[in-house]
Q: What sequence folds into this?
């Protein structure tokens, strides 16, 4: 079946640095990918929709300049957390629709970011 | 605004019992319905999908959809401790987006 790969799975960084997370669709093309953030014991919160070849669509309250999203190809979307702060520590998950109009989503493995 | 509601739990059931997870949604234009299981520290994995009214069975899992009542449920028969996780109900609106419920934490007690 279709697989979405996310990297890195864990990252620890110092406050003020930037961190890039990659999301790849391995055996299918994804013109759209979704980025979620999840705090402990809370549900998924959609941050933005990544669109291949165009600007991402951000949800209300999500800072565009802080969470940079690039979808340069049909198989790769990246999320860059710029000038990270401890409050950005969270579990970031990407997903991509199967493309079959069934609505099925394939999730990446998730990336746990810890900002010291 | 499209909403998906779930009881946050925790729902505790003894091993071998039937676990019943419920989900309601607000928009009648909903197209597809999904149940995802999420273990602590892991990303969600698809358990069941259902698109039309009625029941859909897959092994120990049964999804039930009632569009008139805007209600979708997941039954887990012969619950096992390994079923302990958070179960997310998700609704897909064609051409739009997915909306996830807050999730129900299930605890299966040995």
A:
């Amino acid at each position: 079946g279709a697989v979405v790969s996310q990297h890195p799975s864990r990252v620890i960084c110092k406050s003020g640095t930037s961190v890039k997370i990659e999301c790849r669709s391995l055996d299918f093309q994804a013109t759209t990918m979704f980025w979620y953030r999840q705090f402990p014991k809370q549900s998924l919160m959609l941050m933005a929709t990544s669109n291949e070849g165009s600007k991402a669509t951000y949800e209300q309250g999500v800072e565009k300049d802080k969470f940079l999203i690039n979808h340069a190809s049909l198989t790769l979307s990246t999320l860059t957390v710029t000038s990270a702060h401890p409050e950005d520590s969270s579990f970031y998950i990407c997903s991509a629709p199967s493309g079959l109009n069934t609505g099925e989503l394939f999730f990446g493995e998730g990336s746990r970011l810890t900002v010291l | 605004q499209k909403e998906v509601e779930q009881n946050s739990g925790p729902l505790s059931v003894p091993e071998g019992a039937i676990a019943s997870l419920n989900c309601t949604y607000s928009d009648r234009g909903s197209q597809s319905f999904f149940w995802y299981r999420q273990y602590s520290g892991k990303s969600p994995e698809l358990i069941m999908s259902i698109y039309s009214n009625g029941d859909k069975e897959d092994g120990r899992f049964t999804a039930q959809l009632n569009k008139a009542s805007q209600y979708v449920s997941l039954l887990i028969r012969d619950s096992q401790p390994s079923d302990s996780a958070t179960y997310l109900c998700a609704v897909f609106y064609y051409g739009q987006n997915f909306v996830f419920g807050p999730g129900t934490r299930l605890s299966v007690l040995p």
In short: Residues 71 and 77 of chain A are 4 Å apart (CA to CA).
